[in-house]
Write a structure and sequence with these properties.
This protein is α+β, with helices and mostly antiparallel strands and 117 residues long. The radius of gyration is 13 Å and the shape is globular. The termini are far apart.
Length: 117
């Protein structure tokens, strides 16, 4: 299982993300991890300023301690984003702000407790 709070180096070891009707799966050098759609609690994009420039990472939280950090640009990201956009109340403007911004920050794209409203 991938460590829940991977360092940037460990994130680079993530090789792909896959999605199906039951779960989001992350594969990498450290192993395999997943979050079931029915247990997904929130989706955030984290932007960090680093020597090489600005980096973006998806952070998905499941129930309890289950979570995944997925670097932008990874294989399967577009398919993941397409499924995420189907979540009720998914905030595409938060994604756009994260992509177009120039500062570090957290962009909340979806929260289960807000989607029921």
């Amino acid at each position: 299982m991938l460590h829940p709070d991977m360092s940037r180096d460990a994130q680079e070891d993530v090789s792909r993300v896959t999605v199906d009707d039951l779960k989001i799966s992350v594969d990498g050098v450290g192993g395999h991890d997943f979050i079931r759609w029915d247990q997904l609690q929130w989706v955030v994009i984290e932007a960090a300023m680093e020597e090489e420039g600005r980096s973006l990472v998806w952070r998905l939280q499941g129930l309890g301690v289950r979570r995944c950090r997925i670097p932008f640009g990874i294989e399967g990201e577009q398919q993941m984003l397409a499924k995420l956009q189907n979540l009720p109340g998914f905030d595409v403007l938060a994604v756009a702000e994260a992509l177009c911004g120039s500062d570090a920050g957290r962009f909340i794209c979806w929260r289960r407790d807000r989607s029921a409203k």
